[in-house]
Automatic annotation (TrEMBL):
Protein's name in the database: Cysteine synthase
Catalytic activity, EC: 2.5.1.47
Named cofactor requirement(s): pyridoxal 5'-phosphate
GO molecular function: cysteine synthase activity
The reaction(s) this protein catalyses: O-acetyl-L-serine + hydrogen sulfide = L-cysteine + acetate
Pfam families in the record: PALP
Length: 296
């Protein structure tokens, strides 16, 4: 019998219909893709495996090498899992205000964590990662500019959604951080049906939502192609968190704030259209946010 290895368990996550948060009088179906079912618990398992896999296949890295990455959490956890699985050392740079659950999981996988201040944020983490690489301390995978990030979603997430909706999808919704998910899925779905509407979600104004960013122009991810997104919806942190709690209490889906923001946007779309099939990324599980008090 051929038993799968861990990397073969990345992807093919469930796509489930929301039952109680959607007003179905308009004939809409809202489908949540449960990326928390990936081995390390988030959608970032896909690009983490893709970036390391293809770098190794090209001969850019070899087991034993040190990898460096700036992360707000989920990418770091996913990279730590893949690095442990394939024999790489990993140094992760992250803002000090990220949840302790995330740090604990990264350390469990054997990763070293380097902190920057909350005021420096992800921009400071990215700058430090580049400086460390320039000093010869390791190779930066750079999820913000690495084409193997959206490639993971072009080869996996997009085809899965198309398959599981029998090509009936009309809208795709995803929160935007590195933008790898929305770039890869958009490319695939638009090739299948140019009429599929691609909707990105970003924080409104000064709202801070873990996993979603409104980047300054100079830090905009290089993988981001604005023409691949048809519409951007701004979400307030309170709406993201309230929807996150509603997902748990009314749908049984335990997720984080960025997933709440994406689902909130999908529900807004469902109130504005009819007979639509809306797929939305629920990017991780809620257990890695408990210490932040969002579920209190």
């Amino acid at each position: 019998m051929n038993y799968p290895t861990l990397e073969q368990c990345v992807g093919n996550t469930p796509l489930v219909r929301l039952q109680r948060l959607v007003d179905d009088e308009r004939g809409n179906t809202v489908l949540a893709k449960l990326e928390g079912d990936n081995p390390a618990g988030s959608v970032k398992d896909r690009p983490a495996y893709s970036m390391i896999r293809y770098a190794a296949e090209r001969g850019d890295i070899r087991p034993g090498d040190t990898l460096i990455e700036a992360t707000s959490g989920n990418t770091g956890i996913a990279l730590a899992m893949v690095a442990a699985m394939q024999g790489f050392r990993l140094r992760l740079i992250m803002p000090e205000n990220m949840s302790e659950e995330r740090r604990a999981v990264m350390r469990a996988f054997g990763a070293e964590i380097v902190s920057v201040s909350e005021s420096e944020g992800m921009e400071g983490a990215r700058d430090l990662a580049d400086a460390m690489a320039e000093r010869g301390e390791g190779m930066v995978l750079n999820q913000f500019a690495n084409p193997d990030n959206p490639r993971a979603h072009y080869e996996g997430t997009g085809p899965e959604i198309w398959r599981d909706t029998d090509g009936a999808i009309t809208h795709f919704v995803a929160s935007m951080g590195t933008t790898g998910t929305i770039m890869g899925v958009s490319r695939f779905l638009k090739e299948k049906n140019s009429g599929v509407r691609i909707v990105g979600v970003q924080p409104a104004g000064e709202s801070r939502i873990p996993g979603i960013r409104r980047w300054p122009q100079e830090y905009l991810p290089r993988i981001f192609e604005p023409e691949r997104v048809d519409e951007v919806i701004d979400v307030e942190a309170t709406d993201a968190e309230n929807t996150m709690r509603d997902l748990a209490a009314r749908e049984g889906i335990f997720a984080g704030p960025s997933s709440g923001g994406a689902v909130w946007a999908a529900l807004q779309l469902a109130r504005q259209t009819e007979n639509a099939v809306i797929a939305v990324i629920v990017c991780d599980r809620g257990d890695r946010y408990l210490s932040t008090g969002v579920y209190a």
